[in-house]
Design a protein that fits this description.
By secondary structure, this protein is an alpha/beta fold. It is built from 17 helices and 14 strands.
Length: 439
Amino acid sequence: MRLLYTLILYISLPLVLARLYWRSLKNPDYRRRIPERFGRLSTPVVEGCLWLHTVSVGETQAAEPLVRRLRKQFPDLPIVLTTTTPTGSDRVRRLFGDAVIHTYFPYDLPFAINGFLKTLQPRLLVMMETEVWPNLLALCERQSIPTVLANARLSERSARGYARLGPFTRETFGRIGLVAAQSPADAERFLGLGLPSDRVRVTGSIKFDIRLPASLKEQAEAMRRTWDGRPVWVAASTREGEDEQVLDAHRKVLRALPEALLVLVPRHPERFDKVALLCQREGFVAARRSTGEPCGPDTRVLLGDTMGELTLFLAAADVAFVGGSLVATGGHNVLEPAALGLPVVFGPHMFNFDMISRMLLAEGAALKVTSAAALADVVTSWLADANLRARFGENGLRVVEANRGALERLFDIICGYLREDQQQYRPPPAGTDLDVGCR
């Protein structure tokens, strides 16, 4: 089955390259550093490094405190971060500069993976979330490179899809050294795909361990002053087909609260210009953050078309809508606004954050809507009632605080692999306390 999978990858390679070219028309960074995606790295040999794959922006942001702690604990350990997108690459550079090595993740082709491993020679591979690549896992196993699937989640839909592949799935997942699952439900799904129970641990989601910059409050207050005290809501990480619904909701909000300001932040930078034109076409007076345009009294939408400022927008706002949820893309991180004490609203499609979204709903920290009209009603009621906002926000803060600790547990697991005798290391049995002397 793996040979068939590999053959399909080779056959589809022209389509993969065509897709890279197509995406590069909107974001030229997609056609840069292409050799890295085939395992041809410009970096010298980095023997004994820690390889951490963080996919894109969200995973990189979540892994930041883990990386900083590892660098402090193991100052001489080279850390290689891989991402699949230019936005992820940019986030790595902004967060860590030259303190870590960044390269693009190689395609799951044997020659690409072999070239990559030959240059990096990692002592451990940590894959964030659910990145499962059959050839990568097979070649790591062959070269005795331990693998950890960290902060792992697996939706029911994904589990059903993997299960259809039968023995191929069991063989692939069986090569993972340890799965650090976000929830007991995630752990059960991994076990259902054939992983032995001693290789699945429930560690929680490291996204609960979010740490906000000390200067954020001051920066947010300064931004808030430029908005002249207007009621503000943020539509965070919106996806294709969602911006129209958000603008429709904002139009309804303005009927009740004419001074309201929407900060609209598309998920991908290649969509910034398109969304700006959409605002114009829909008749909204919009300012673009990237140009430094001020939000005058007539400005109804601020387009957040910059990278790395979403947290600042959220900290300065009153209400947060989390995108990717009114369209079937699975939603985005709801914990960042919750950690800022904001009431959170999202659509019906939150399968990427199923456990977390259900926790926020159960604790009265968030609301779920199914339409633009319902979104407008929730935003209007929250913007008009500071006490109601505060109640939802305080509930969100309580949920975040009560569930911290996953980062510590994951750090201890990685420490165990990085000890001098890591070749003999085995994770402790499920249910035991982690204590490997790395604190």
